[in-house]
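Late entry, written up from scratch paper. The run itself happened at the end of the previous shift, but nothing got recorded in the book at the time, so transcribing now.
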Amino acid sequence: MARIRQRRIVPPEPYPWRRVIGGVTLVLVCWGIGLYREYQPEADTYVETAQTLLPHTFRDGIVHRRAKGVNGQVPVPPVYINQGDTLLLTVHNELDVPTSIHSHGLRHDGATYMDGAAMVTQCGIPPGESFTYEIYGAQAGSYWLHGHRKDDVADGLRAPFIVRDKYSPYEYDEDVLIYLEDWYPTEVPKKMAEILAPNSVGPPAPTFATGLVNGYSGNDSRPIQFVPGKRYRIRVISMSSTMYWRFTTPGHKLEIIEADGVTSEPCLVDGFTLAPAQRYSAIVTAHESGDFNFIYNCTMYADFIPRIPGLNPRIYTGLIEYQRDAPIKQMEVVGDDQLVWADDLSMHALHGEPALPMERQVVLETRAFISTERINYRKLGTLPYTEPLVPSLFTAMSMGEQAMDPRVYGPQAQAYVVPLNQSVEILLKNPQGQPHSQHQHGGWFQIIERGPVDRSELEEPPAQANFSLANVPFIPVRRYSGIPMSRDTVDVPPFSYVKLRFRGDNPGVHLHHCHLNPTHSGAGLSITFVVAPDVLQKTLRIPQALYEMCARQGIKTEGNAVGNWGLDMTGLPPVPVELPNSSPKVPLPTDAPPSPINPPQPIN
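Output as recorded:
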């Protein structure tokens, strides 16, 4: 059982990459100087971080391919700061295309322009230029930094970002980080060209990723060192672009204390599933005896591509080491259906906020969208998302009262304007045979309810899926109880819906998108929430450097989505036209058997 108390987290001294200037703590980090190394830069206020397309890299021991790196190296080492610190991250772009960096999971209250979503809150950083992100660590938790323009994430531009608690509500002795990635043999631009190729008869054939654990092949994981009787906080971060992961520690129970940066009441499980971009922290108590070592399991899989032994799933194991020469404890083999898995409806946020009222409902639905040119797009609203010609934040700041009209953001931005402090329920429906990992910028949402999509709305699964409508399990309706759990990324399984609620208390422009990159988000599975643009105009001051960065690229910084005034969309790129019946709906069999549910146990 977890022990709860307020404990001061004291950083190790000296702290060479930490500076206090004018009463503000600034953290200086140089990426790419070796795995896990923190390097003391010569500058006192910032560090130059260059993004480079490396000639080739050999991370998984199988594929020798090009990758995007930082300071000439891939993988990008983790970044650590303490709660209340400010990370100054100067990004120098040595690519031949614009780029940006998103700090995934942080709210950026009062500084939405630091969110890092290109053509949403900023113009991309042009080739050969630099921009400094000021990232305030208000929220303790497990996050990650990644590129947010086109193909950056899947080609290697990603790193864990940990904000250590100033006062931890849980007692533990050491912090252990495990970050998981999928690594594909094909560079993303080539894959996207296949996905969005005109006159295609369907999605391209799937390719199979290899799994990376802490930056390199999951087959080469370093042991986790345990000392008998100590308590370890294990942070597991999925930085995958497409594949899902399961994490278990046979012989040790996991007491979940955090999901996506939100501290939870302790919840006892055997393991958890991580959709792309999800994170968990769990306390693991070491055994009193060190007579045996144990195995931990990281399984990478996807149910929407063919199941082929050795390719999907891929099973990786690592060692929990008490003593170097101790034997490995042989555990009874138990099927996944006999284990207790993390379930966000059975978890409770420690902050104790009750479920928000539903003052407005926004219905989003994941759908295929095949255009008349036979391009395979995807959509959450009425159209596939594409970038506006003016960043949406700049439109919100410059359009006066018209900023409250969602039409000024352009039809392809799929904008929803949310008044200040309005409570919004998202009914997110997935009638497809593929899961979706939905992420919202600018804050968290509460998980309220899950259930089945109406049978009349279902789509036939893709041909490469491991199931058909004939064997889809029964999906029960389930709601939160007590205090709902909050997080920023939610898995939406096939043929199901989820109800989410958030309050518009963070004025800004926030993307809501699928985090399966590039096949879903890159094909248009995004919408935009514009929160309180009237308040933004009175309170926000966008740094002049961001205006100048746009100007040097010939990008307008005022007006509607195309830089005109009012609703004049002259110059808008052609809006795709959907091919009739491109999202066929097929009824679900009525005799599908129920599926077992084994929820985790809340700990009193």
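Residues 1-25, 28-48, 584-604 have pLDDT under 50 and may be disordered.
(Scratch paper discarded after transcription.)
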